[in-house]
Amino acid sequence: MSEPATNPDVTSFPAPNISLPLGLEVLRTYSGVLVCIEILFGGLVWILVASSNVPVPLLQGWVMFVSVTAFFLSSAYLLLLITGLADRIQSDWNFLDVFYHFLALLFYFAAFVLEAATTAANGGANITLHPNSSDVVMCITYPRGNIFTVLSYNQYSINVAATIFSFIVTLCYACSLVMGFRRWRM
To answer: Would residue 144 be called left, alpha or beta, if left means φ above 0 and alpha means ψ between -120 and 50 degrees?
Structure first.
């Protein structure tokens, strides 16, 4: 008896759709460089917020979640491209690139706004220690507004740096989204 004819549509899968080069060549593209910058500066945001001892956990908890999650997801994405495993996974990588960078941009923009709000809520509140005859008196000058945080000078400086780097990472994700969208539509 002869074997039944196999349908080629059933046994074959479409080739993955990816327009970025694989291997180390991806680092020569603007998208590869942007992902490296996202990883580097996103790691800096993570380190800076953690080193400030997270004085406002309600706001900065989201910043920590976004920076850690985006750091690991961007690292995994870059690793898939460098190792060439993206070519073996049957998917529309151009769409996944746009979708990932859209979500990362959305989350990082929210994290940037919250980190900026934490920093701005300090708004000139200063803690000065005045030596008294036997004790040290703490004098706090309150800024204008309804919400304020009392940060030490060191915490304030670290949060300013974290705000700047989170803005840079947000811009990098926006540029990656635009370039990914252009690749996806081509």
So the answer is: beta
Contact yes or no for 33/27 (Cβ under 8 A): yes
Residue 128 neighbours by CB distance under 10 Å: 9
User: 117 exposed, middle or buried (CB, 10 Å; 0-12, 13-18, 19+)?
Assistant: middle
The pLDDT of residue 167 is above 80: yes
Question: For 83-116, what is each residue's pLDDT tens digit?
Answer: 988 888 888 888 888 999 999 999 999 999 999 9
Q: Residue 186: its pLDDT value, please?
A: 73
21: Cβ–Cβ under 8 A, 6 or more apart, which residues?
28, 29
User: 9-48 in b/e burial notation, b at 16+ Cβ within 10 A?
Assistant: eeeeeeeeebebeeeeebeeeebbebbbbbbebbbbbbeb
CA distance 69 to 63: 10
Chain centre to alpha carbon of residue 78: 14
Q: Can you give the pLDDT at residue 103?
A: 97
Residue with tokens 């999650």: 69
pTM of the model: 0.79
**From CA 179, how far away is CA 17, in angstroms rounded?**
16
